[in-house]
Specification:
The complex is a heterodimer of chains A (117) and B (112). Chain A is mainly beta and 117 residues long. In chain A, strands 2, 4, 5, 6, 9, 10 and 11 form a seven-stranded mixed sheet that branches. In chain A, strands 1-3-8-7 form a four-stranded antiparallel sheet, with no helix packed on it. Chain B has no helices and eleven strands. In chain B, strands 2, 4, 5, 9, 10 and 11 form a six-stranded mixed sheet that branches. Classes of the chains: A mainly beta (117), B mainly beta (112).
Chain lengths: 117, 112
């Protein structure tokens, strides 16, 4: 399957700081990527759809000014958690479909575990 | 009604048995269906995709789709302790273009 990487894998930061997470498709191009958040013992929650060359689409209840998404190239999307607070501590995972068809399989990055102190 | 429903489990089976995982979905126009496996602390890993009614087999895994009943299942033959994980059902809903809706997952425990 296609390979998606994320960096960093783990980050610990102080409350009030901003954290940037990178998601890269390594062996394919992705015009669309998805950002999820997962709290312990809960399922994946879609936060936003990242679109190359245009604004991201955010799910209801997700603050776009807090979670900044930039999809600057066909292989890279970034999620910046601004002014992070302890309640933002979570497992952040990106995914990318392997093509542009609705049938294309989606592949997940390994995730970034964010801990805000 | 949730869009994608799964029994949270845990589903406990002995090693070597068949594990049967089930998923129902509400959007009759759904087109694509996926099963992911997620180990604790890790991200989801794609196991199977299925698009047409019937069965699709890949090694020890068989996905079954019944669009009339809005039901998709995953069978794991010869279950191994290493299969112990949470299995997520995901559905690509009509009009959602590549946006997947996930169930809450079924936790599978395979005992040696």
């Amino acid at each position: 399957g296609a390979v998606v990487s994320q960096h960093p894998s783990r980050v610990i930061c102080k409350s009030g700081t901003s954290v940037k997470i990178e998601c890269r498709s390594l062996d394919f191009q992705a015009t669309t990527m998805f950002w999820y958040r997962q709290f312990p013992k809960q399922s994946l929650m879609l936060m936003a759809t990242s679109n190359e060359g245009s604004k991201a689409t955010y799910e209801q209840g997700v603050e776009k000014d807090k979670f900044l998404i930039n999809h600057a190239s066909l292989t890279l999307s970034t999620l910046t958690v601004t002014s992070a607070h302890p309640e933002d501590s979570s497992f952040y995972i990106c995914s990318a479909p392997s093509g542009t068809s609705a049938d294309n399989e989606q592949f997940f990055g390994p995730g970034t575990r964010l801990t805000v102190l | 009604q949730k869009e994608v429903e799964q029994n949270s489990g845990p589903l406990s089976v002995p090693e070597g048995a068949i594990a049967s995982l089930n998923c129902t979905y509400s959007d009759r126009g759904s087109q694509s269906f996926f099963w992911y496996r997620q180990y604790s602390g890790k991200s989801p890993e794609l196991i199977m995709s299925i698009y047409s009614n019937g069965d699709k087999e890949d090694g020890r895994f068989t996905a079954q789709l019944n669009k009339a009943s809005q039901y998709v299942s995953l069978l794991i033959r010869d279950s191994q302790p290493s299969d112990s994980a949470t299995y997520l059902c995901a559905v690509n809903t009509k009009g959602g273009f590549q946006k997947l809706v996930f169930g809450t997952g079924t936790r599978l425990l395979v005992s040696p």
